[in-house]
């Protein structure tokens, strides 16, 4: 039997086997690990590509948007250079938060997202940017082009979540939110992560 060209006989790895997106860096694919309903921190297992339970969240804080990563990106030297307060990139795929009007309560999915901005996050001296995007075919958010087109309350919730999601009792959080940035810088971050990926893993 001959398989169609676009048919995968085996499940592709979400990080390495999926495409970065149809019009990257502006329009990208996002693989979703966590939904706004999750009290568990899930993370893709780098060896198998399946979702692994990383940890239960210690606090009641939940992500205010879909949370995952952009396939075929890597936070390496170029990402580190874009964050003067960081020593290096964190060595993971580039994280992305995707805003959707309609609730999406499933993870382990892929979707198309339009990049509008991001958070410059420093975690233990490593650059750990969080790209902010909207679901590309969302009728409610279709006119959003830049970070200022999103409610300030939503951005504040994202800042709070990432400021507290690694918080432990009687310890200071290792995470610092350096700044919120708009579309122009976000596109540079996505491009840098794509180039870092090519250097690390090849095209």
Looking at this protein, list some descriptive labels.
single chain; 203 residues; alpha+beta; Inorganic Pyrophosphatase; 5-stranded mixed barrel; two-stranded antiparallel ribbon; 3 helices; 10 strands; 30% strand
Kindly describe this structure.
With 203 residues, the chain is an alpha+beta fold. It contains three helices and ten strands, in the order E-E-E-E-H-E-E-E-E-E-H-E-H. The strands form two sheets. A five-stranded mixed β-barrel has the order 1-4-6-9-7. It has a two-stranded antiparallel ribbon with strand order 2-3. The model has no long low-confidence stretch (mean pLDDT 92).
In quaternary terms, these chains amount to: single chain
Principal-axes geometry comes out as globular
Rounded mean pLDDT is 92
CATH top level class name: Alpha Beta
How many helices does DSSP assign? Answer: 3
Structural class: alpha+beta
Task: Outline the secondary-structure elements.
Elements (H helix, E strand, L loop, with lengths): L26 E8 L5 E5 L6 E6 L9 E4 L7 H5 L6 E2 L5 E5 L9 E15 L2 E2 L2 E6 L16 H13 L10 E8 H19 L2
Parallel strand pairs: 5-8, 6-9
Antiparallel strand pairs: 1-4, 1-7, 2-3, 4-6, 7-8, 7-9, 7-10
